[in-house]
Specification:
The chain is an alpha+beta fold. The strands form 4 sheets. Strands 6-5-1-15-14 form a 5-stranded antiparallel β-sheet, with helices on both faces. It has a 5-stranded antiparallel β-sheet with strand order 2-3-4-12-13, with no helix packed on it. Strand 12 and strand 13 form a beta hairpin. The protein contains 10 helices and 15 strands. Helix content is 26%, strand content 18%. Helix 1 packs antiparallel against helix 3, helix 4 packs across helix 7 and helix 6 packs across helix 8. The longest helix is centred in the last third of the chain and has 17 residues.
């Protein structure tokens, strides 16, 4: 059965000059994911429980002898059945995930279990295809757009790859929850949302001086007579960094851009997610040139894979940034189950009108990107499912060659 309600986000860090996401690999990932949706939620660690032992008056030796008892300093038998022990659920590690009765579970401290609704076939297939790639590492996050339930969370790390010996990875944190990759083109969506929220007319044309690659200079922010002109909708879809740098410089202050980054989850904590994670961070400089570089994703921000999926789900729906869920319920030793509570939105996100405008941009962006050709070769049963999304690449050549490749998107594009 193919579900028609989910958000897809793939993040891959490619540490070699080769591309990780070949058409066949990316197609298999998205085709496989289409068949499996499970809804999940998660508890966080509880507060510690304290023990208090009641006090009683001390008996003197004389009083003890008079009553035929023992003096106070003599050993007194203790009924240990009366002592309290910690029984509430504790924290969970992704290393404790296991399969039982065709479902995935996680072990919590204090002998509790959490039923995870991650599909084991998605987990296994993504791990297999990551291992067949030429990348040093990769991560995949899948989220149901309307509820925030995580339906896929997988990682791959080639321990033998030389670049991984120099990278500071945290083995206690799932790779999809580590903020080690620059947000790159994904932060351009934050900038676009900030421009729309500030009242920019997306159909107004602006002319500017173009720059190549990441070589932006102060002259590129000045108003000039130029034949290079564009509109917001076309500029974002076509990754026109020259346009975004120029327009953001003239329409967005550091405070406005920072506010939008906060509203879309940067520097925000999850509500009781349960697994350890790293915050997505965004530093917005006050200097114009550095701020323009940040606005187009050249510097200043890093994010984890799950956050990128949540950001896309806000675009795919009403603009609210929902809290991610990973566990359906938890279970104690006796089999008693407790359902996870409902959590409020993680942040305000953006207005519904801004989200609707960005959805139209994402539909156009997939056609501008080479990744869009991948979805043209889908199996016949999936060809009616249109994808909206955007890919981006950020490459560093010093001190070692490293390439970060992102793809974020959702489907079906016509009715997410």
């Amino acid at each position: 059965m193919i579900s028609s309600r989910y958000d897809v986000m793939i993040r891959v860090e490619n540490m070699t000059p080769h591309k990780l996401l070949s058409p066949s690999t990316l197609t298999f990932h998205l085709v496989l994911v289409a068949g499996f949706l499970i809804y999940a939620r998660l508890f966080g660690p509880p507060e510690a429980t304290s023990l208090e032992v009641p006090s009683r008056p001390l008996k003197t030796s004389a009083q003890a002898e008079e009553k035929g008892g023992q003096p106070e300093n003599s050993p007194v038998p203790i009924d240990r059945s009366m002592l309290l022990t910690e029984t509430r659920p504790g924290s969970m590690s992704h290393k404790t995930f296991f399969e039982r009765e065709e479902k995935l579970w996680g072990r919590l401290e204090n002998s509790w279990l959490a039923e995870l609704t991650l599909d084991k076939r998605v987990q296994a297939a993504s791990k297999y295809h990551f291992s067949k790639s030429k990348s040093a590492m990769g991560a995949l996050a899948l989220v149901e757009v309307k509820t925030g339930r995580v339906i896929g969370l997988s990682e791959y790390i080639d321990r033998k790859h030389p670049i991984n010996r120099r990278m500071k990875l945290n083995d206690d944190v799932h790779l999809a929850l580590q903020s080690i990759a620059p947000s790159s083109g994904i932060f351009r969506l934050v900038t676009a949302a900030a421009l729309l929220e500030s009242g920019l007319n997306p159909l107004q044309k602006y002319c500017y001086r173009k720059f190549k690659g990441a070589w932006i200079q102060a002259k590129h922010l000045k108003r000039v007579e130029s034949n290079s002109c564009n509109y917001l909708t076309e500029a974002v879809a076509a990754t026109d960094n020259s346009y975004l740098a120029f327009v953001s410089h003239h329409h967005l202050s550091a405070d406005k851009l920072k506010k939008q980054a906060l509203n879309l989850g940067f520097d925000r904590r999850y509500s009781y997610f349960g697994l350890p994670y790293e915050l997505s961070v965004a530093h917005i400089p006050s200097r114009p040139l550095e701020r323009a570089k940040t606005a187009v994703g050249f510097m200043g921000s890093k994010m984890n894979t799950l956050h990128a999926a949540m950001l896309m789900s806000s675009i795919a729906t009403d603009g609210k940034l929902k809290s991610p869920r990973l566990v359906e319920h938890i279970q104690d030793q006796s089999g008693h189950q407790i359902d996870a509570p409902e959590f409020p939105p993680m942040a305000d996100g953006m207005s519904p009108s801004t989200a609707a405008r960005l959805r139209r941009i994402m539909k156009n962006a997939i056609h501008e990107s080479p990744v869009g050709k991948v979805f043209q070769d889908w199996p016949s049963q999936l060809r009616s499912m249109k994808v909206a999304g955007q890919a981006s690449v950020r490459t560093f050549r010093k001190p070692s060659f490293i390439r970060y490749t992102w793809f974020v998107g959702y489907m079906p594009a016509q009715d997410p």
